[in-house]
């Protein structure tokens, strides 16, 4: 059985560590780590021995205040070191503990702790990697002042970096050198970082608004300096934005970003020394796409914003993870909205929430943004904690307004700077700053599942009154079942849901324009059912409910096709214009699924007309918004809609329906797509700016539809363009063409893929794209090709980016093939999980999440999935990460 950790068992630490002085000596055969811990009995603690975490550490020496400890003074097992006494005498209230251990970073394939990557040694400590470097109480409520001396071969590892300020450095003998760093701020050990590597550096500086000069540096693999300019400018933009929007300044003299090719996650906010996956740093027009550029902006901002929301104020325990992650995602979303298009940013966040978070909430790993138990914390870096966490913060923002929110942030920092706190502390600051009672709102923190919001409108022309009845419901999820099994209390009662509402009149204007800003009023739904009445509405309006997607809920609102078309055309809220289009498209596509995806009788003429209008609009006004509107709901989203209606998910029918609709639109609107393609041709050199990005998105979308034309047209008119575009000067256009070709059963596909690989084989991130377009291909035999690619020299199972690009892309972004009726997709996933789990349990567990929804499929598929899940579960020495995911899936 897996050990479960419970929030209710939280107790303050018995001992505090005020300082940690580390000495890390990197040698070819091993690394030696010495730690000097200044320990102090916690007056507010429960008393007792000093418990230190340690994993895969070979203890060499242990002494207390200079006295070597003897066997009877301590106990040491696989993961803890307990210090009870000094030579039999009780521990004093203050002392220094000295430890010396050896670790083996060269054989660390988990990429947690200190590990070797191509250009040197890198650390990753969140959540529990520090215990793989040195003995320490590895919990975020222990905040210590760190100093760190690093020693290594000078030639191979010229850069020696850690948090804070470089205070001294020198040489040692002929070939070695050392550097000593001191971090002036106390921090939890998960924010510690160390790098010893051979890297190139781009340097710059930033002057904060109070006049502090901060040296900025981006370190990358040698030869890649021409790919880090965008990251640097994103960093500077983030720094000014946080000053302007939240009054938050950089607090250190150095801010360093180090890019590494082997990394489990996106990036890590270590104090003053962020470590990034290369994917979120490196970009050049010919190697990175528009969305890569945007993601770099977002992730650089995210990690930078953590300096205040996460580092200055951190989490008391890992159950509070959303305290820093939900808030920081909210902040990076706001940054993107302010620096790119706010409507497009919001639409993309909502789409992502539906693709990743809603299924999570409906599946066996369902959990609230603040869970109360876990077996492996690494499994809780989820869409729920991050993205739904951000939605919860956004709802507070919506309820109390921008100014009160800002006061709430100020108060939060006034109260908690330098502390490790809880989600409750954050909500309390927001409540106190705004005066709004958030007690009912707090339920969002402890409830799993996606609520249903039911709406019903009624217009009384005689008295010009519109009445909207809203009701909410939230069915128990797998999480409540787990609570019940553990004998824990289950929260009940309605949630406090902000429902942003507009009433759109027949002429397209907003009925509430005079009373409310932007014609949008925010309703507070706090009861199970509530009625809202609006007087002086001159004509029957179409209600625009949940403007800006004001709450993460499923909306059940039976609006007619004509009403949705009205919103698509006139809603002043861009997000809901998009949403109306998505609802209409889902309706059509699900009718297609019901019709078996055959013929086209289920495609209403009005839908074709709506697409036509959006295209027209996009060419005249906002191309980026039009491109978003023309992306049909994802197969995963349609699958969830089926599951939500109690139907069995039919991945084949969903795929067919979507494809039929694409073919139909391509045939009916070919001239329009051609016109768009012509009109949106590039007129200036590539730049990843909003205007160009939108034009490229719409133009490539048009090209994608043209590629769905009949064979003659495809061969004669589209194929030459696709092949030419494979040689475009920017990766956005190249990958759009290559991705389209990868879906076509034509000889040119092979040529284009081979040429692309030949050209880019030495550029790791571009090779990832090559793997990904093949993994997500809709052609038959894709599972087999993915398997074959795993044997290709380009693939490396030890590198997370490669596994994500090939295997996770196949499992998570190619539902029709992953859920193939022959069970080959499931077998492939299980093979990878089993091969990977001992090497890198975190990444293996992420792949295992692909099985989450297995019970929603037909019995044939269920039996294939069960076979594979049981095969994984039955393997010996299964990593805890994978065991938790698979255990929950099998329930
Ligand atoms: N804290 C990191 C972030 O949100 C994510 C992360 C978690 C990175 C665990 C590495 C390990 O930006
Ligand atoms: Zn984060």
Write the SSE topology.
Layout: E1 5-6, E2 15-26, E3 31-41, E4 50-53, E5 58-64, E6 67-68, E7 74-76, E8 80-83, E9 85-86, E10 89-90, E11 94-103, E12 113-117, E13 120-124, E14 145-153, E15 159-162, E16 165-172, E17 176-182, E18 194-197, E19 200-207, E20 213-220, H1 229-246, E21 254-260, E22 267-268, E23 273-277, H2 290-305, E24 314-315, H3 321-339, H4 342-362, E25 373-374, H5 383-400, H6 402-416, E26 420-421, H7 423-434, E27 452-460, E28 465-473, H8 478-485, E29 497-504, E30 521-525, E31 529-534, E32 542-545, E33 554-556, H9 561-570, H10 574-594, H11 605-620, H12 623-629, H13 635-644, H14 651-668, H15 670-679, H16 690-706, H17 711-725, H18 731-742, H19 747-760, H20 764-775, H21 782-790, H22 800-813, H23 815-818, H24 824-836, H25 841-848, H26 859-873, H27 880-890
Parallel strand pairs: 2-14, 20-21, 21-23, 24-26, 27-33
Antiparallel strand pairs: 1-25, 2-3, 3-11, 4-8, 5-6, 5-11, 7-8, 9-10, 12-13, 13-18, 14-17, 15-18, 16-17, 19-20, 22-23, 27-28, 28-31, 29-30, 29-32
Helix pairs in contact: 1-2, 2-3, 3-4, 3-5, 4-5, 4-10, 5-6, 6-7, 9-10, 9-11, 10-14, 11-12, 11-15, 12-16, 15-16, 16-18, 17-18, 19-20, 20-22, 24-25, 24-26, 25-27, 26-27
The chain binds phenylalanine (PHE) and zinc ion.
Zinc ion is lined by residues 302, 306, 325, 328.
């Amino acid at each position: 059985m897996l050990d479960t950790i419970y929030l209710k068992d939280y107790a303050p630490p018995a001992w505090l560590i005020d300082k940690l002085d580390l000495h890390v000596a990197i040698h070819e055969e091993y690394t030696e780590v010495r730690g000097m811990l200044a320990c102090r009995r916690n007056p507010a603690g429960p008393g007792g021995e000093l418990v230190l975490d340690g994993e895969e550490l070979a203890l060499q020496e242990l002494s207390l205040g200079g006295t070597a400890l003897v066997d009877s003074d301590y106990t040491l097992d696989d993961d803890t070191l307990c210090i009870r006494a000094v030579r039999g005498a009780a521990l004093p209230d203050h002392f220094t503990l000295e430890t010396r251990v050896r670790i083996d970073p060269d054989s660390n394939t988990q990429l947690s702790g200190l590990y070797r990557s191509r250009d040197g040694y890198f650390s990753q400590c969140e959540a529990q990697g520090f215990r793989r470097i040195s003995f320490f109480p590895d919990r975020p409520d222990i905040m210590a002042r760190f100093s760190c001396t690093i020693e290594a071969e000078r030639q191979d590892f010229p850069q020696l970096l850690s948090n804070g300020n470089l205070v001294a450095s020198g040489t040692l003998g002929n070939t070695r050198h050392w550097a000593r760093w001191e971090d002036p701020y106390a921090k939890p050990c998960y924010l510690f970082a160390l790098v010893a590597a051979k890297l190139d550096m781009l340097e710059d500086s930033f002057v904060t608004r109070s006049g502090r000069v901060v040296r900025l540096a981006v370190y990358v693999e040698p030869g890649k300096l021409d790919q880090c300019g965008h990251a640097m400018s994103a960093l500077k933009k983030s720094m000014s934005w946080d000053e302007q929007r939240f009054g938050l300044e950089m607090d250190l003299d150095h801010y360093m970003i180090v890019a590494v090719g082997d990394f489990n996650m996106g990036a890590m906010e270590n104090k003053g020394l962020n470590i990034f996956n290369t994917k979120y740093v490196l970009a050049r027009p010919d190697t990175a796409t528009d969305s890569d550029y945007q993601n770099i902006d977002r992730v650089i901002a995210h990690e930078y914003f953590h300096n205040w929301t996460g580092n200055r104020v951190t989490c008391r325990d890992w159950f509070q993870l959303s305290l820093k992650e939900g808030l920081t995602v909210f902040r990076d979303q706001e940054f993107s909205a302010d620096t790119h298009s706010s409507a497009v940013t919001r639409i993309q966040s909502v789409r992502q929430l539906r693709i990743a978070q809603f299924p999570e909430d409906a599946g066996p790993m369902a959990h609230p943004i603040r869970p109360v138990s876990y077996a492996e914390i690494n499994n809780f870096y989820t869409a729920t904690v991050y993205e739904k966490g951000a939605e919860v913060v956004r709802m507070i923002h919506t309820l109390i307004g921008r100014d009160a929110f800002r006061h709430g942030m100020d108060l939060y920092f006034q109260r908690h700077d330098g502390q490790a706190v809880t989600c409750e502390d954050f909500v309390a600051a927001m409540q106190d700053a705004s005066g709004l009672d958030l007690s009912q709102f707090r339920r969002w923190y402890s409830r799993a599942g996606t609520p249903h919001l039911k709406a019903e409108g009624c217009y009384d022309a005689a008295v010009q009154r519109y009445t909207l009845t809203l009701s909410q419901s939230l069915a128990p999820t797998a999480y409540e079942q787990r609570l019940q099994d553990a004998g824990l209390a289950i929260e009940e009662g309605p949630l406090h849901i902000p429902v942003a509402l507009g009433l759109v009149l027949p002429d397209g204007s907003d009925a509430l324009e005079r009373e409310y800003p932007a014609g949008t009023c925010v309703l507070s739904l706090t009861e199970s059912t509530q009625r809202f009445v609006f007087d002086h509405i001159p004509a029957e309006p179409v209600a625009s409910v949940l403007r800006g997607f004001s709450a993460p809920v499923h909306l059940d609102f039976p609006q007619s096709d004509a009403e949705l078309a009205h919103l698509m055309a006139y809603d002043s809220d861009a997000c809901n214009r998009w949403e109306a289009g998505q609802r209409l498209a889902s309706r059509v596509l699900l009718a297609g699924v019901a019709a078996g995806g055959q013929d086209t009788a289920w495609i209403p003429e009005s839908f074709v007309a709506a697409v036509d209008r959006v295209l027209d609009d996009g060419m005249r006004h906002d191309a980026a918004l039009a491109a978003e509107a023309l992306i049909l709901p994802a197969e995963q989203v349609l699958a969830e809609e089926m599951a939500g209606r109690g139907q069995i998910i039919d991945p084949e029918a969903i795929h067919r329906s979507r494809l039929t609709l694409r073919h139909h639109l391509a045939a009916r609107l070919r001239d329009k797509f051609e016109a768009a393609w012509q009109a949106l041709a590039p007129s200036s050199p590539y730049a990843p700016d909003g205007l160009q990005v939108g034009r490229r998105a719409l133009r490539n979308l048009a090209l994608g539809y043209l590629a769905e034309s009949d064979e003659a047209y495809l061969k004669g008119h589209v194929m030459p363009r696709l092949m030419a575009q494979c040689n475009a000067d920017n990766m956005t256009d190249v990958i759009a063409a290559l991705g389209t070709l990868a879906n076509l059963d034509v000889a040119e596909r092979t040529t284009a893929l081979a040429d692309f690989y030949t050209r880019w084989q030495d550029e790791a991130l571009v090779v990832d794209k090559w793997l990904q377009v093949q993994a997500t291909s809709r052609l038959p035999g894709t599972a087999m090709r993915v398997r074959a690619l795993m044997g290709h020299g380009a693939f490396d199972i030890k590198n997370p980016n490669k596994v994500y690009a090939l295997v996770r892309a196949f499992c998570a972004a190619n539902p029709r093939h992953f859920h193939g009726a022959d069970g080959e997709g499931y077998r492939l996933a299980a093979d990878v999980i089993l091969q990977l789990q001992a090497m890198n349990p975190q990444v293996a567990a992420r792949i295992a999440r692909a099985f989450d929804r297995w019970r929603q499929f037909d019995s044939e598929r269920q039996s294939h999935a069960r076979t594979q899940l049981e095969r994984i579960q039955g393997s010996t020495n299964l990593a805890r990460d994978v065991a938790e995911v698979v255990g929950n899936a099998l329930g």
